[in-house]
Amino acid sequence: QVQFVESGGGLVQPGGSLRLSCVASVRMFSIYTMGWYRQAPGRQRELVARIDSGGTANYVDSVKGRVTISRDNAKNTVYLQMNSANPEDTAVYYCNIYPPYGSDSWGQGTQVTVSS
Predict the structure, then answer these.
(1) Predicted pLDDT at 58
(2) Helix or strand (DSSP H, E) at 114
(3) What angle do CA 32, 49, 27 make, to 5 degrees?
(4) Cα 26–Cα 27–Cα 33 angle in degrees, nearest 5
(5) Is 106:94 a contact under the CB 8 Å cutoff?
(6) pLDDT mean for each 10 residues of the chain (116 residues)
(7) For a tag site, which of 30, 67, 103, 112 has the least CB within 10 Å?
(8) CA-closest candidate to residue 48, choices 40, 60, 56
(9) How many of the other CB atoms lie within 10 Å of CB of 66?
């Protein structure tokens, strides 16, 4: 059974920064590609960024240059550093394996609200 616990969200002003963390209870965490996903109100959940076992990262176009995904395999933790936040980044952010482990594997997520 897998479990993901996200934290670090909150209210941030446009242009501000935030660092999200996710602790994953996943056996052999280091071999998996991990992803950060988000779901805005009224929209489907989307992949924001992913990082493979070798540390290679990929980003959705809307966050390129503003977001950095990283991982600490010793801590079973994946991070998302968000800079230059804008209101379109407002969403609940989740982490999961990429592709997602299963429909019932999602954690509670962490809310990010970008507003002045």
Answers:
(1) 98
(2) strand 110-114
(3) 20
(4) 60
(5) yes
(6) 95 98 96 98 96 97 97 98 97 96 90 97
(7) 103
(8) 60
(9) 15
